[in-house]
Amino acid sequence: MASTDTEAAWAALEALGRRAGAGAIRPLFAADPGRFPRFSRRAGDVLLDLSKTAISEEVLAALLALARAADVEGFRDAMARGEAVNATERRAALHLALRAPAGTPFSTGGEDAAAEVQATLAAMRGFVGRVHDGTLRGATGERFTDVLNIGIGGSDLGPAMAARALWTPAAPLRAHFLANVDAHAWEALRARLDPARTLVLVASKTFTTQETMTNAALVRAWLAGSLGEAAVAGHLAALSTNLPATAAFGIARDRVFGFRDWVGGRFSMWSAIGLSLALALGWEAFARLLAGARAMDEHFLAAPLEDNLPALLALAEVWHVDALGYTARAVLPYDERLARFPAHLQQLEMESLGKRVTAAGLPARRATGPVVFGEPGTNAQHSFMQLIHQGTTPVPVDFILVANPDHAHPDSHRKLLANGLAQAEALMRGKDEACVRAEMRAAGKDEAEIERLTLHRVFPGDRPSVTILLPRLDAFTLGQLVALYEHKVACLGALWGINPFDQWGVELGKQLAGHILPALEGRDGEQDPAAAPLIAEILRMQGRG
Ligand code: F6P
């Protein structure tokens, strides 16, 4: 049950959202061109600019009052203390422990989580060192040149995103990621891999996920078929919480890197699940990634709410979703290396916040997680930005900009940044009828043509965006960026009163797939009338019906 204070804070915020012109940003800038310093904050390398939202001093005060009433700081501290903040599963969510330096105390359920993390990191580091120095080699005596991570969801997206973001020509190994149970993915990868030089990681928290275990069996058969059964064990390692299942798969105990159930899949790239990163990028890069996340953790744990970047990012979301009714958000990294960052956020945010029941088991009284989608800029500009500029409902945008590139083409980078900044400005400023008419007149259009096209060419403006600016993209800044969003998710869990750490919504489809599979194998079984005709059509097209 929400407290009276929380309900009063929600009511105050919602009243602000209902006021005429609540979503207008231009008047705020007109009244106060110096909004930027008042509505931007820094933490470490991250600059967060909220000035191009309709958050005024009054709205910010209401949002902060809500954060206090919802006890965002209390939820944060309970999470850091290892309490069972994942209430439905009665588990901690202790990803903070994964990136804390040795000696930082973290425990949960009477167990010393910190000691276990350090022991796993030491084992991972030893393994990575032996692969890189050639002590561990493939069965034919060749050095490993490629690492293949087989996993899906949280056992794929974080490492796949970071491997792409941080790749350099000097990377010690090439990284590949196999997620989809669609074997076209494996066939495409297989054509590029030499089994003699490929190290395979089976990454699965549960070690039961259908897609991962199916792909693991395919890849295992490929290794056995090309190198012989005896060679397989030397090419495999596992990243999992399920030690009995990894043993049953034939993976030697000293090649299993474990973690605990208090590491959620979508928060797991810092755990043993990050082994592909350490192998592909080098231990130093992986350690810097953890250090970057730790820097953001320290900020999150210590900064007051009004300066706390994750809390402010969460509050901007509440303003947009609940007060203004904007139920989608786009994430546009203006850095090609972050091409998979929106995909990572899709899982992190939508699997965490797509909930319609509160942690206490009651129907949620307000809209919760928005739809999150994205693409790197500038590609997005030539794809879905039309809707964001001129569609019927505003879609807030996160612009992620990186000041300094790691290439020697400053002209390209200036154009990239100019486009990102221009999109944010265009969304906010828009272009009114008078301006459109004047532009067309200046271009020599006749009045009929001006009349015909004016409305089509108007941009409504007042479309919000936040900008996140990093000085450069490296392991340390990427760690900060990812942790910023992780903690934003935790704050939103507290604000909406939902459990951001479970994901019951993924279960039904898995159950039904298990029921449908025998029918596709040609075995009889009663099927739902919604599925049965399509199953029959598929069997007919396969020549089996
Ligand atoms: O999609 C559901 C889910 O459980 C995710 O939360 C998780 O990241 C993914 O499947 C993979 O699970 P596992 O690591 O157990 O294979």
Automatic annotation (TrEMBL):
UniProt xrefs under InterPro entries: G6P_Isomerase (IPR001672), G6P_Isomerase_C (IPR023096), Phosphoglucose_isomerase_CS (IPR018189), SIS_dom_sf (IPR046348), SIS_PGI_1 (IPR035476), SIS_PGI_2 (IPR035482)
Key words, A-Z: Cytoplasm, Gluconeogenesis, Glycolysis, Isomerase
Subcellular location: Cytoplasm
Biological processes, Gene Ontology terms: gluconeogenesis; glucose 6-phosphate metabolic process; glycolytic process
EC number: 5.3.1.9
Protein's recorded name: Glucose-6-phosphate isomerase
Entry annotation: catalytic residues: 351 (proton donor), 382, 510
Gene responsible for this protein: pgi
Keyword match Kinase: no
Task performed by this protein: Catalyzes the reversible isomerization of glucose-6-phosphate to fructose-6-phosphate.
Family statement drawn from the similarity comment of this UniProt entry: Belongs to the GPI family.
Pfam family, one: PGI
Entries under SUPFAM superfamilies matching the protein: SIS domain
